[in-house]
Specification:
Blueprint lengths: L5 E6 L3 H11 L5 E7 L10 H4 L4 E3 L2 H6 L5 E4 L6 H10 L3 E5 L6 H14 L3 E4 L6 H12 L6 E9 L20 H5 L1 H12 L4 E8 L4 E2 L11 E7 L5 E7 L8 E7 L2 E6 L4 H6 L18 E6 L5 E6 L8 H13 L9 H20 L3 E2 L2
Parallel strand pairs: 1-2, 1-4, 2-3, 4-5, 5-6, 7-11
Antiparallel strand pairs: 7-12, 8-9, 8-10, 8-16, 10-11, 12-13, 13-14, 14-15
Helix pairs in contact: 4-5, 5-11, 8-11
Length: about 375
């Protein structure tokens, strides 16, 4: 297997598959796009058989998984389908990569983790924003330790001005199915906090519908939030704030604000890879993943006598979303669970934090995790 490519099959053929997965599968040296499962290609605006005539095509999950040449299954369908499809793929002896959110509950995550161990197969979860250049920049700053000092506050934002409710499945999928802003965008932000700081001691959250002017709680038990404010507390006094908004009128939307005992770092704007991919930019383009200097972060550093100086702080060189597929491909070749870039156990921990946020919003109290 070390000298041959692994055959990858993709379930689903929407934006996730065409923008976030297939372009990276086809450029990863250890992987080969082998097959696509699209239930009704003739009735869809996007047709997998038309776009990829040289791979195998299926409309049935049973036939797709029965293909003995298939090694790895990539699940790109909406979240409420992830558990069943992942379970079937593992039972068929396939490795899997699952779009975020992994599954709607930590209990379902544990079931899949146990099944993967039983079958000797690997699970990777597509937390691609671990490879946003601004996040890698923050990660490097914190790993340095001396630039910002001890971190006391960490803010991460995904704010937009979008008062129109989504017209696709994201506008109707319930929280208990893995829907809403908490699962869709919160999964990214909470995962990044988890990567930097681990499991929090406690979670206090408020979920809101900014479009409707409503807050979660006992009076609105069925609220499906489009906005999130979550406070994650850690030993040592660190507070991490997770913010998601749909009614944020800004020229440059906030992204990160990190405060330490020696300095702070502020960043606006979202990583450009998603809009670049949607515009048709190739992953091999020299500008892929790069921002212009107008989006540089700002470092405020403490000097002698309490003076403060501010300076531009550009992002690190992009690794891009290619990295998650490169690392997962290497893990598959060696069949080494410890090399999986986003193991299911970490996605399970993020789901525990999300579930604590839901409970906190319902009860209006902090939920203790550790």
């Amino acid at each position: 297997m070390a000298n041959s490519k692994l055959n990858v099959g993709v379930i689903g053929y929407g934006m996730s598959a065409t923008i976030f997965h297939i372009p990276f599968i086809t450029t990863t040296p250890t992987l080969r796009l082998h097959s696509i499962l699209q239930r009704n290609p003739s009735e869809s605006a996007s047709s997998a058989p038309r776009d990829h005539p040289d791979v195998r095509h299926f409309t049935s999950i049973d036939q797709f998984l029965a293909d003995a040449d298939l090694n790895v299954v990539v699940i790109t369908t909406p979240p409420q389908t992830h558990f069943s499809l992942a379970q079937q793929a593992l039972q068929a002896g396939k490795h899997i990569l699952v779009e975020k959110p992994f599954v709607p509950s930590a209990a379902e995550a544990n079931t899949l983790i146990d099944l993967a161990k039983e079958k000797g197969r690997l699970i990777c979860v597509y937390q691609n924003r671990r490879w946003d250049s601004d996040f890698l920049t923050v990660q490097k700053l914190l790993a340095d330790g001396s630039t910002l000092g001890r971190i006391v506050e960490f803010e991460t934002h995904f704010d937009r001005f979008r008062l129109e409710k989504p017209s696709n499945w994201k506008g109707s999928l319930r929280m208990d199915q893995g829907g809403s802003a908490l699962y869709d965008l919160g999964t990214h932000l909470i995962d990044q906090v988890y990567v930097l700081f681990g499991m929090p001691r406690g979670v206090f959250a408020t979920l809101a519908s900014q479009r409707d002017g409503l807050l979660s709680g006992r009076e609105n038990p069925d609220l499906e939030p489009d906005s999130v404010t979550a406070q994650l507390s850690y030993d040592g006094g660190l507070i991490a704030l997770v913010r998601i908004a749909v009614s944020s009128v800004e020229v440059q939307q906030p992204r990160f604000w990190v405060r330490g005992t020696k300095g702070s770092y502020r960043k606006t704007g979202l990583d450009p890879q998603e809009p670049q991919l949607k515009s048709g930019m190739k992953t091999s383009d020299a500008n892929f993943g790069k921002e212009g200097p107008e989006w540089n972060g700002k470092l405020a550093l403490l000097g002698e006598g309490g003076s403060v100086r501010e300076q531009d702080h550009p992002n690190v060189e992009p690794e891009t979303y290619s990295k998650i597929y490169e690392l997962f491909g290497n893990a598959l070749v060696g069949n080494r669970e410890q090399d999986v870039p986003v193991p299911a156990s970490q996605a399970r921990d993020v789901l525990r934090i999300i579930e604590a946020a839901k409970e906190s919003a319902r009860s209006r109290r902090e939920v203790q995790l550790s």
